[in-house]
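Work through what follows:
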Amino acid sequence: MYSSTSEITRLVEENSRWVKPLLEEISKVIIGQRVLLQRLLTGLLTNGHILLEGVPGLAKTLSIRTLAAAIRTGFSRLQFTPDLLPADLIGTLIYNQRDGEFTTKFGPIFSNLILADEINRAPAKVQSALLEAMQERQVTIGDKSYKLPDPFLVMATQNPIEQEGTYQLPEAQLDRFLLKVKVTYPTRQEERAILDAMATSSPRLEISPVAAPEDIIRARSVVNDIYIDDKVKNYIVDLVWATREPSAFRLNLDGLIRFGASPRATISLALAAKANAFLNGRGYVTPQDVKTIGMDVLRHRIGITYEAEAENISPEAIIDRIFSTIPVP
């Protein structure tokens, strides 16, 4: 622990020098989508997985591939399909007839940055194998468990409008994602810039690595030490508790919430707020950090009732109501 927030802020400045060059390098390919890129960095800084949801063509896959190219680290892209098997993901045992023994062939999950493209197209067995990798940072092949490399981060995408041939992600797996980010359309000016840069049969997508895994691991240790005042901690707990017992906070949400956020949400909200403070060059967390990142932490951790769905009330609307009601310290 450090003696003052000014000392932590100094360490933040020293250990975040790679962030600006990284964003500049990514911006050579990705135009706009600043929030998306910041959320991807939040996942790297907190060792947390990220789920991206958006209609096709919003550069979800391209953003993740470009981020991986700008870091000197391993990268695997997994295209999830209904006929995918767990062995296609984690690997399998192969029998060697010559010596009569089994050898282990490792799957593409053994990398640092994993792009799980269209994750909701994979069947339950594959989801279960991925769940162990996400939570335990290990996979089991045969009767042995194998540790995954560090850093290890799953960045998954899913399409919200095409549901044919998809499998809804179970709540247990959704809860393993630190953030669920909804990717939106670019602005008109950004789209014009995209047209100028990409309207060619062979767009230039050359990216140079400008950061290393060691930079990220050092930054994580600083993020862990970023200061959170007790009042801000109580604010985080109140926000999560309001999803479970809204009446205790004078919120009129009766019959709208099927289940509230888990304690993992409390931990994730504090970690993500620390990462947001780091990206803004501060050694301490403010309530605004919590509000900035809160929607992406909570939206996939609240279950709404059929009554809420019938009234077109989304989890985002409920979270907005909670944030506008709970007093800010």
